């Protein structure tokens, strides 16, 4: 911080009750000047030799036979007038960033110009501002803060504009050329050289970050902060990501954390104005430069304080561009009346629809993926949003005011390709069924039909098979597809064992015959068919033996689930093919039943073929 001293003579104060007597000399005084509650007893000659305005006021007072002059609306008050009076008397005057603006305006008020005397106070203060204050990063911010209480003088004398230009110019400098101190408490490392609390000097081994300046200007009031940020953006040298970080830091500094403080009558107007200012300062590409979490927090505050629709739409537009970066907690935005739900589900549905619409349009412009792996690599954002919304569904499922239609609409807003696994969706549906026990069987059936049991993992399938909240049809489907999965594993094991046995018994000639095209091997000896049929039967017996021991091979299904499956499934397909369950009743057979019957026929045919081979 810079100081300036002028003159060297003593002064004294005398307290006189409500007023203060200020005496600059022991000699008899001939003029009394009142500034606020302070009375100054001074001599005319030193003052008149430096101030053109005092010359006019003293002349007017003499015409009225009075030696009292009262200065109304004096900028800076008594302290600023004291500096001017000391300068007139040749006493020591100390100028610093905290009082230099007030002294400058007081000198302007008293017309202490070069026309009155060379080297007058206005000239000296201007030299101090240009050569010292505006060259300093910290001092420029301090001076800008002091101008708040000195309107309209600050604007008339263009001190505010000069401070803002000084600050904006320094933020646009190359970080490698920064040599002054700055505040940086967000990512302070252990190796940083801290000279005092919150103060950091850039070291030789560590480069200065691009956002080194954002914390220092957070101390400004919102109107001054807005003007500084507009000037910084107008320079055109600052990355949008740094602008976004600066706004995020300012919002964290001034916006309260609690909902009660946000909506309180004492601060709601201020918070609303602050929020709308931050939103208007967001970069045009806010969806790229600002984090999704920050934008969602701004949207949450905007809803709570009742910001205008245009501000909300700007935030929604930016959030929909990068919804895949959000977390479930970010989406938990409290709902406002007339909504009856705890969280604003309609808003989240709007965000998802906008995100999916943009993703579909961008996908249509690109070449379609050749495989599922290509799709996953090219559309990772889809998978992230699918996982995000499934987690959000689990949160809102606990709300008794979330209707089934709203829950299903949000569930269906995510395409099937964004849900390769349905474990999280199953968890959300399970919670919803537990919290909404009044649902009818048809509603439960419809909700569970939106879940693909084939996309459940082993753990989720075993949990669903024993879940009493699920409809009977869903449990049967889970058991059936789990049975198919287990059977596929056993079939793979059988195939591997059969190939191993056949290979050990195969001669070199037989090996080459097997590798020939099928047309050359149509006629095979009957004995060879018989041997292979017997080997296959032996392997089947080995598998059945191994299934009794859990450690010896894969299990088809736990005994309890198998009993449920046998009781439900065999009962459904036995008889004349009639459906005896109310869960699967209908004029036509369901796809599940057709698959089951086809599977049973296939197994029967396979069994008969095995018997024919063994007999031959």
UniProtKB/TrEMBL annotation:
Residues 211-485 form the NPH3 domain. Pathway: Protein modification; protein ubiquitination. Keywords: Ubl conjugation pathway. InterPro entries: BTB/POZ_dom, NPH3/RPT2-like, NPH3_dom, SKP1/BTB/POZ_sf. The keyword Zinc does not apply. PROSITE patterns: BTB (PS50097), NPH3 (PS51649). Residues 29-97 form the BTB domain. Transmembrane segments: none annotated. SUPFAM superfamilies: POZ domain. Residues 539-548 have a biased composition (Basic residues). SMART domains: BTB. Residues 534-558, 573-616 are annotated as: Disordered. Residues 575-590 have a biased composition (Low complexity). The keyword Metal-binding does not apply. Pfam families: BTB, NPH3. PANTHER family: OS12G0117600 PROTEIN. Belongs to the NPH3 family. This is BTB/POZ domain-containing protein NPY1. It comes from Solanum commersonii (Commerson's wild potato). The lineage of its organism: Eukaryota, Viridiplantae, Streptophyta, Embryophyta, Tracheophyta.
């Amino acid at each position: 911080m810079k100081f300036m001293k002028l003159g060297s003579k003593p002064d004294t104060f005398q307290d006189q009750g409500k007023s203060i007597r200020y005496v600059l000399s022991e000699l008899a005084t001939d003029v009394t000047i009142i500034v606020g509650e302070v009375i100054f007893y001074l001599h005319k000659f030193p003052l008149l030799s430096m101030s053109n305005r005092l010359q006019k006021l003293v002349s007017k007072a003499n015409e009225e036979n009075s030696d009292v002059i009262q200065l109304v609306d004096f900028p800076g008050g008594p302290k600023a007038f004291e500096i001017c009076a000391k300068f007139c008397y040749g006493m020591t005057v100390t100028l610093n960033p905290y009082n230099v603006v007030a002294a400058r305006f007081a000198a302007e008020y008293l017309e202490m110009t070069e026309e009155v005397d060379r080297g007058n106070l206005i000239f000296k203060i201007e030299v101090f501002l240009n050569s010292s204050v505006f060259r300093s990063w910290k001092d420029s911010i301090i001076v800008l803060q002091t101008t708040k209480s000195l309107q309209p003088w600050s604007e008339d004398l263009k001190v505010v504009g000069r401070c803002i230009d000084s600050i904006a110019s320094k933020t646009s400098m190359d970080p490698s050329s920064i040599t002054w101190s700055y505040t940086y408490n967000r990512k302070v490392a252990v190796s940083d050289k801290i000279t005092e609390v919150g103060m950091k000097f850039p070291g030789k081994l560590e480069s200065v970050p691009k956002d080194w300046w954002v914390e220092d200007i957070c101390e400004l009031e919102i109107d001054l902060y807005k003007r500084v940020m507009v000037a910084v953006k107008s320079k055109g040298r600052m990355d949008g990501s740094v602008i976004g970080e600066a706004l995020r830091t300012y919002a964290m500094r001034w916006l309260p954390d609690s909902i009660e403080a946000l909506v309180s009558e004492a601060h709601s107007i201020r918070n609303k104005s602050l929020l709308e200012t931050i939103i208007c300062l967001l970069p045009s590409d806010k969806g790229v430069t600002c984090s999704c979490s920050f934008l969602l927090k701004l949207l949450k505050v905007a809803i709570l304080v009742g910001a205008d629709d245009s501000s909300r739409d700007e935030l929604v537009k930016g959030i929909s561009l990068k919804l895949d970066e959000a977390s479930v907690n970010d989406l938990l935005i409290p709902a406002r009346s007339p909504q009856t739900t705890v969280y604003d589900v309609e808003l989240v549905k709007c965000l998802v629809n906008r995100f999916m619409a943009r993703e579909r349009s961008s996908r249509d412009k690109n070449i379609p993926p050749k495989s599922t792996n290509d799709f996953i690599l090219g559309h990772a954002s889809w998978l992230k949003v699918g996982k995000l919304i499934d987690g959000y569904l689990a949160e809102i499922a606990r709300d008794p005011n979330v209707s089934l239609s709203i829950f299903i609409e949000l569930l269906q807003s995510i395409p099937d390709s964004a849900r390769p696994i349905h474990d999280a969706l199953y968890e959300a549906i399970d919670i919803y069924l537990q919290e909404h026990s009044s649902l009818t069987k048809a509603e439960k059936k419809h909700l569970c039909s939106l879940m693909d049991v084939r996309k459940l993992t082993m753990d989720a399938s075993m949990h669903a098979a024993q879940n009493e909240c699920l409809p009977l049809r869903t449990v049967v489907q889970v058991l059936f597809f789990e049975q198919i999965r287990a059977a596929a594993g056993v079939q793979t094991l059988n195939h591997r064992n059969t190939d191993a046995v056949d290979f050990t018994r195969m001669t070199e000639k037989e090996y080459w015959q097997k590798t020939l095209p099928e047309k050359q091997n149509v006629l095979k000896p009957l004995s060879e068919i018989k041997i292979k049929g017997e080997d296959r039967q032996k392997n089947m017996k080995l598998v059945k033996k191994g299934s009794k021991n859990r450690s010896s091979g894969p299990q088809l299904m736990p005994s309890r689930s198998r009993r449920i499956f046998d009781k439900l499934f065999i009962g459904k397909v036995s008889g004349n093919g009639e459906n005896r369950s109310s869960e699967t009743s209908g004029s036509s057979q369901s796809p599940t039943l057709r698959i089951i019957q086809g599977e049973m026929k296939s197994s029967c045919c396979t069994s008969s073929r095995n018997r024919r081979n063994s007999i031959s």
